[in-house]
Amino acid sequence: MATLYTLAESNIRKTWFYLVSFLTLVILIGWLISYYFESPVVFWAAFLISILTSIGSFWFSDKLVLAMSRAKPISKEDNPELYRLVENLCIAAGLPLPRIYIIEDASLNAFAAGRDPKHSVIVVTRGLLEKLERVELEGVIAHELSHIGNRDTLLATAVVVLVGLVVRLTDIFFRMRFRGRARGKDKIPLIFFAVSLIFLILAPFLAQLIRLAISRKREFLADACGALLTRYPEGLARALEKISRDTKSLKTASNATAHLFIVNPFKGKEAVSWFTKLFSTHPPVEERIKALRDLKI
Questions:
Q1: Nearest Cα to Cα of residue 236 among 150, 147, 141, 151
Q2: Cβ atoms of residues 144 and 109 within 8 Å
Q3: Which among 50, 5, 13 is positioned nearest to 214, based on CA atoms?
């Protein structure tokens, strides 16, 4: 039977494996471009552009997500019970109090955002507040605080940078290749060229799969850390059951923000086959519930 610590260690190892795979993918693409065009300038130029264009989105990511979700800030006077719950969990976790927002929607969901613990927000829907019991709501809030404490938003930004870099590099390669700027064909073995071409075509696809895999592993890790924070895994397990049974989709959700939520906000569109699971931003709720109930704290 898994313990909280073995589950957390396993997910951390898998996340690092995926990140190393991501960096390896970027390095391979960079090497191929340098080889074909006999210059590393293209690779480093694309890398610099990707970093610069991502800085702005990272710095203002929380404001952008809040606007897209139509979340409204609340004060302690608006919902003192919710504030006390968040304050108590923040003290236990050693985290600063995040800003708290509510989405006026009957669906059950929540997410956290922000570039670091000092600039973080927790967002819950009205339906979540009305339909969950206190221990269940505590489990959800602990999960979101774990995302903040684990710097998952920073990791997500780094992964987005890498995905953007892969896409830009492959785009630059094909543009320059078909404009005849590569080294002469007689200098490149045919088999090597064919294999490289297939690899570059599949690279953006592989990058997206790695990004989604990292996202799913961070959900398992946040579940485990949230259970440690509350010392009651059953609270989050029951909350996930209720949220998954809810049939209402979140009206303000989009593909750009779906990965942030504690469960898929597009109800009725969850992955059912192994192939569709590859493209899911969340692991199956049933697997998360089982992992929580198998934990020994």
A1: 141
A2: no
A3: 13
Sign of the C-alpha dihedral, residues 222, 225, 230, 231? positive
Rg (CA), the chain: 22
From residue 184, alpha-carbon distances to 30, 36, 209 in Å are: 19, 9, 34
Q: Which amino acid would we find at residue 279?
A: F
Q: How far, in Å, CA of 195 to CA of 214, rounded?
A: 27
Q: Helix-strand-coil percent breakdown of the chain, rounded to 5? A: 70, 5, 25
Across the beta sheet with 120-125, the strand order is 72-73, 99-103, 120-125, 110-114
Residue 122, strand partner residues: 100, 112
Residue 160 confidence class, pLDDT cut points 50, 70, 90: low
One-letter amino acid of 285: V
Catalytic residue among 144, 241, 270, 286: 144
Contact 233, 3 (CB under 8 A): no
User: How far apart are the C-alpha atoms of 278 and 297, rounded to whole Å?
Assistant: 31
Indicate the helix (H) or strand (E) that contains 125: strand 120-125
Contact residues for 69 (Cβ-Cβ < 8 A; gap 6+): 103, 111, 123, 252, 253, 257
Q: What is the DSSP letter of 260?
A: G
Residue 144 known to be catalytic: yes
Which range among 6-15, 94-103, 177-186 shows the weakest confidence by mean pLDDT? 177-186
Handedness of CA 55, 59, 62, 67 (dihedral sign): negative
What the block records as the tokens of 182 is 């590569």
Token duo for residue 264: 């898929």
The end-to-end CA distance of the chain, in Å, is 11
Sequence ranges of the domains in the chain: 4-293
Q: How far apart are CA 39 and CA 244, in angstroms?
A: 52
What is the pLDDT at residue 190? 65
- pLDDT at position 4: 47
